[in-house]
Amino acid sequence: MSMLPAPNLSPKELVNDDVDLMSETNMTTASPAVAGNRQSGSDSPAIAEPPREKLTKKAITADHPTWCPGCGDFAVLAAFYKVLEKRQLDHEKIVTLAGIGCSSRFPYFVNGHGAHYIHGRAVPLASGISLARPDLHVFLFGGDGDGFSIGGNHLDHGARKNINMTYFIMDNFVYGLTKKQTSPTSPIGFKSKTDPIGAIDQPVNPMKKLIAGGATFIARTHAAQVNHMIQMIERAFDHQGFSVIECLSECVEFFPDVFDPANPKKGGSFEVIQEKKWDNTPEDDLRHDVTDELAAYKLASLPFPGVFGVFYQSDRPTKNALEKKWIETTREKIGGASDVEILRKTFDRMK
Amino acid sequence: MNETPVVKQAEGGSAASPTSTATPASGASPASERADLRPENIQDAVIRLAGNSQDGIQTAGAFLARLAGRSDHDVMTYMTIPATISGGPSIFQVRIGSGEVLSAGDEADFLVAFYQHSYQDHLDFLREGGVLLYDSDNVEPNLDDKRFVYVGVPITGLTVEALGGTAKDKGKNIFVLGLIAKIFNLDVEKLKKLITEKFGGKDQSIVNTALMAFQAGYAYPVGNVLTKHYRFEHFPKTSGRAQITMDGNQALAYGLIAAGVRYGAGYPITPWSSIMETLRRELPKYDGIFVQAEDELGAVSLALGFSYSGYLAVTGSAGPGISLKAEAIGWASMAEIPLIVCNIQRGGPSTGLPTNVEQSDLHQAIFGSHGDSPRVVLAAASVEDCFYIAIEAARIARKYSTPVFILSDTSLATRIEAFDEPDLSKLMVDPKPDLTPREGGFKPYDLERITQHIPPGTRILDGKYPLIGGLEHDEMGHPTGSPKLHMAMTAKRRNKLRKLAEEIPVPEVYGDQEGDTLLVGWGSTYGPIHDAVKMGREHGEKIGALHLRHVHPLPNGLEKIFAKFKRVVTVEMNDQGLYGYGQLATILRARYCEPKIQSVTKTDGLTFRVKEILQGVFPGKFVSVRGYSPNRPVSGNGEQDVDVARAESIAQGAG
Ligand SMILES: Cc1ncc(C[n+]2csc(CCOP(=O)(O)OP(=O)(O)O)c2C)c(N)n1
Ligand code: SF4
Ligand SMILES: [Mg+2]
């Protein structure tokens, strides 16, 4: 190392005086680990773990949210806490993920495993986790710019492949974090810093995009309707496949009041989709069949603020299931050979 | 083989002699009077098959390579692939040796020309005294040129005759294989077995046709025109391990599997695609998944998702796709998530030379993202090394929780080599994630240690879970704007690579341990550089070579080696850049502040020939050695005409 210039400042001076950052002795140690138990599914004897406590709101709350007071995203977080409390999932199996944006700060506010990824690419990140670890509950959060603009192509392909996850999009019709630029869902005429005379580009219709993309659970909700949000999250969570919820969530800072037309408290009306009950009544004829793609598309064409609830749901097999099936048939054929044996056999063919 | 004095061709045309141990019999006897059919023992031969890609010359060449592997010979191949989809002029070169074979050979001992253009484009690669075996139905050579031995065989006609009407001339490649088997006394039974294995399966008639073509070629009385037959000397391998034969991309893919990599994602691009194809097909056998993603951004993100979930994953591409992954690689560096990124380099920038070779992505691998984003960069030296470098990459990625690049290139990806079967019982890594519950107080970014990523599903017993992210963070993973923490965390990410540098072994110097010139290489130039050292020393130069597998960080202690030589010259297939140095030389000069570090670079899209290296390192010397002339068109196809580039590679010299 003699030729390396000396590091400008040793980090230990900066942080902690009695810590030798890179000393030999503490290099290789990982975190302190409880002995024993490897990997779920390993057959090593279970260790004595402390009993599980009830998953309370307190247990899943982390940093205080950094959102502006009044931001719609607070209500989404509250609804999510409620669902987690209600479902009592194993704490360590909850994974909260996001891209970049105000809404994408979400994972920092949930105490659980999670990752804050890069702008627009969280769908494939979540896909990797979902495909490799069926034991986990994969929740993904993000905004309209993150999901429909920079991540628009990933959204289509996550949908088409039907990868099992719950994806909640907080749509505020604007770029919040970067302070008021036009978003892909900004209505024509919206005056932003990038459209000083008003937006001129046709906005994305999230429901139509998701239907066309092939998502297998598609719903729409509103951040002022906490009970409806909870219902939608639970149904999305229970669905096997790529489940997406678009939630109108107001940016009080850069696009205030835009969702009032759907908020009864602000003089609007929150119109919920009536789903078919299959009860052979004449009323049922008028109700929405969630498996009918065309009907869903028609609902998506209603003028703003439109309707709320489940637009579409289908039980098309997930990529998770299809890959698993391929693995199972492949492994059946090779009859339980070990990894070493399989690779050796491959090498034998190359001799 | 180039170091052996060339056997002069006698008047009237007689046997050529590839590197020969026996003194060649003065072969003046006219072909018709030849009496002695006893094969001559040889140690090394370079056979170049030149035709069109649709003729299956790759298939024939691959049979030779596989046979050599099965017979314990060293073998190295070299091929060019036309960039056009429908095919076009193409070559496959096989070098078979009884000793160590490091490069594919500057010159051919045997040139098989299927067409007039094959003859014209490749005759200059035939060494003096070499044999031109040509299809007399398609090629009219200049028989007045007495430097070569001419063996004309009506390959097309005889193939059609042997196979009957429907096959047309399909099977010429196998007919030629039969001819070569005869000339070189190859093991016919083993070859037939290989043919049966390759074509067997669906349709027995295909195997039969192939065997008929082989038999016809083998039975052809080539002895009437060629006075000598050859036989490779057999030196049994000392390792006692069987040889396996594969290309570099296969070696890399299987190396990843041995390293315990069970998940990955990619997007197709030449020359990376075959790795993802192999992994897509193979991983389900190992309970894994490889995903074809919608694009490279999706691919790297899926791979990071796999790694985050506890299974070290791979993504890869060639330069253009790596550019797309750059942002996510920065995230991996910041979030300290392990990841393997393969870059199978080709000529760039942009779509560049998609089927040619270049080493111009080194700086992209080391620096390509944004911010200070340390990562590890390794480079495979040979096909065999593609296997082992994957294991090393996985080891480092896991231990240091960091992205690790593996650099390979078109030449390694496509060439076939035989190597000792790896000892899997020692090498195979168990990929299961460690989900052991953690005591309380767990810090994902503890400044006191090199931290390893803890996958989800791991219970943290005090209930405080780690958050992984791309924002600068404190030790718990929570965002911070603190200047002190950014400095400390930047240092944490940098210092772990310094720690790695201490652990990497210093590479051994090949050739002279001190003296005039130390060649320094990385990646696929390993073979030609070592052959250049051999040849240089035979010509009295004091020259050694050092090859870097760990390119970033560099191993500690290189300066001690550099001190023993008057000059240090990197040999690189990239441009000398604005300031006159290749990409590795630029790094070394910055690292060691040493003006004696220079470089020989070239950008013609072709692998280095031994003489090019020597001529670049010792300007003005080695010009008389045949097999290289700066103004010779290399061929009219995938190997594009490189007059200018070649002239420039000389002009760049040691600069
Ligand atoms: C690659 C990249 N481009 C741009 C940005 C800057 N950026 C951060 S968030 C954002 C838009 C966020 O909008 P949205 O997804 O709607 O989230 P919101 O803040 O409105 O919740 C942009 C452009 C970035 N972080 N990364
Ligand atoms: S800027 Fe808008 S979206 Fe962002 S936190 Fe504030 S109110 Fe919410
Ligand atoms: Mg937004």
Question: Could you characterize the architecture of this molecule?
Answer:
The complex is a heterodimer of chains A (351) and B (655). Chain A is α/β, with parallel strands linked by helices and 351 residues long. Chain A folds into three domains: 1-51, no CATH class; 57-316, Rossmann fold (3-Layer(aba) Sandwich); 321-351, no CATH class. Helix content of chain A is 32%, strand content 13%. Chain A has twelve helices and nine strands. In chain A, the strands form two sheets. Chain A has a seven-stranded mixed beta sheet with strand order 2-1-3-4-8-7-9, sandwiched between helices. Chain A is globular, with a radius of gyration of 24 Å. Chain A starts with 10 loop residues before the first helix and ends with a helix. Mean pLDDT of chain A is 89; it is low at 1-46. Chain B is of the alpha/beta class. In chain B, helix 2 (116-122) links the parallel strand 5 (108-113) and strand 6 (126-135). Mean pLDDT of chain B is 87; it is low at 1-36 and 626-655. Chains A and B meet through helix 1, strand 2, helix 4, helix 6 and helix 11 of A and helix 1, strand 9, helix 7, helix 9 and helix 10 of B. Strand 2 (113-116) of chain A pairs parallel with strand 17 (467-469) of chain B, so a sheet runs across the interface. Magnesium ion binds at residues 101, 143-145, 172, 174-176, 183 of chain A.
